[in-house]
């Protein structure tokens, strides 16, 4: 039985990565090809730089750099305040008192677990989930 060999460049992830980075396909990597191989990182860094460059002049001054982080900290504090208020005002749906805020069903007699139609009353926590 003959076994057909599979070329290593079809299976080896390192060879595939080399081929991906070698943009001009000359079998060699230049430093530029190597740097440009991580395009998502470069795009991230570009967006970050332009976020610092608030006046759009292509240069980030010390004041722009500091202002960026002040703005970021202000945004973070505003978000924290919102979520802290949300968490403080939120009621736990797993506590029985949570259901006290819902209107009572007029078809259910006080203390009864059955609807006037005859079927069992569903667990309210199961209805919400």
What would the keywords be for this entry?
calcium ion binding; 6 helices; flat; mainly alpha; single chain; 129 residues; EF_hand_dom
Q: What report would you give on this structure?
A:
One of its GO terms (molecular function) is calcium ion binding. Residues 40-75 form the EF-hand domain. This protein has 129 residues and is mostly helical. It has helices spanning 8-11, 13-21, 31-36, 39-52, 62-89, 124-128. The protein has a domain at 13-86. Helices cover 51% and strands 0% of the residues.
Structural class: mainly alpha
In sequence order, what are the helices and strands, one letter per element? Answer: HHHHHH
Task: Determine the number of helices (DSSP H or I, runs of at least 4 residues).
Answer: 6
Characterize the overall form: flat
- Please give the largest β-sheet: none
- What is the alpha-carbon Rg in Å? 31 Å
Q: Give the amount of beta strand, in percent.
A: under 5%
Average of pLDDT: 76
Instruction: Measure the end-to-end span.
Output: 61 Å
What is the helix fraction of residues, given as a range? 40-55%
Unreliable residue runs: 114-129
